[in-house]
Design brief:
Order of helices and strands of chain A: EEEEEEEEEEE
Number of helices of chain B: 0
Shape of chain B: globular
Distance between the termini of chain A: 40 Å
Largest sheet of chain B: 6 strands, antiparallel
Largest interface: A-B, 19 and 24 residues
Radius of gyration of chain B: 13 Å
Structural class of chain B: mainly beta
Radius of gyration of chain A: 13 Å
Order of helices and strands of chain B: EEEEEEEEEE
Oligomer: heterodimer
Largest sheet of chain A: 7 strands, mixed
Shape of chain A: globular
Chain lengths: ~120, ~110
């Protein structure tokens, strides 16, 4: 069974950084891209970027190029996303989702990040 | 970036009636290989999105045949025949033709 387990909710201060994780199981981690999607409260879905866990190659949406950093650890089958210089605009739920090619077939439960002083 | 524009539903939709959700892309999603890279997802309240339809008209594994996708290169429709209570949520279309991947703003379905 494919599972994507995400780290727990975070409450962080403005200006700080946060690193959230997505542990994959039930499939060969390096065979599929991992994508990240942002959803602000009561808002729609926004694609952040994706990583190829096999070689670390990344692609980002332009607006997230200086905000998000995607990494992957093949030894633990875990993908990570670090968000930097956090502001209230970064308060959102962040999903990791597996991309077998042309769609997202499995999603994590989401990690809620709240930026507040 | 490819802009995805979704239509609204005349909520609430009576249980057992059909519902059609429209989505329009600012660029043709028809690939040279003949496939159209348009996906549909449902996000039920409090849950993660789930894949319903990919390549415009192919149902994902385990998805009810009450869901069907159709369209052209830029205009798409998700039809739900005989809506049920479990269909409540927000439906998103997504283009997977090119980066950055983009979603529509979502269409909310309520059931009466």
């Amino acid at each position: 069974e494919v599972l994507l387990q995400q780290s727990g909710a975070e409450l962080v201060r403005p200006g700080s950084s946060v690193k959230i994780s997505c542990k994959a199981s039930g499939y060969t981690f390096t065979d599929y891209y991992m994508h990240w999607v942002k959803q602000r409260p009561e808002q729609g879905l926004v694609w952040i970027g994706r990583i190829n866990p096999a070689n670390g190659n990344t692609v980002y949406a332009e607006k997230f190029k200086s905000k998000a950093t995607l990494t992957a650890d093949k030894s633990s089958n875990t993908a990570y996303m670090q968000l930097s210089s956090l502001t209230s605009e970064d308060t959102a739920t962040y999903f990791c989702t597996r991309g077998p090619g042309w769609y997202f077939d499995f999603w994590g439960p989401g990690t809620m990040v709240t930026v507040s002083s | 970036d490819i802009v995805m524009t979704q239509g609204a539903l005349p909520n609430p939709v009576p249980s057992g009636e059909s519902a059609s959700i429209t989505c329009q892309s600012s660029k043709s999603l028809l690939h040279s290989n003949g496939k159209t890279y348009l996906n549909w997802y449902l996000q039920r309240p409090g849950q993660s999105p789930q894949l319903l339809i990919y390549w415009m008209s192919t149902r994902a594994s385990g998805v009810s045949d009450r869901f069907s996708g159709s369209g052209s290169g830029t205009d798409f429709t998700l039809k739900i025949s005989s809506v049920e209570a479990e269909d409540v949520g927000v439906y998103y279309c997504q283009q997977f033709l090119e980066y950055p991947l983009t979603f529509g703003s979502g269409t909310k379905l309520e059931i009466k």
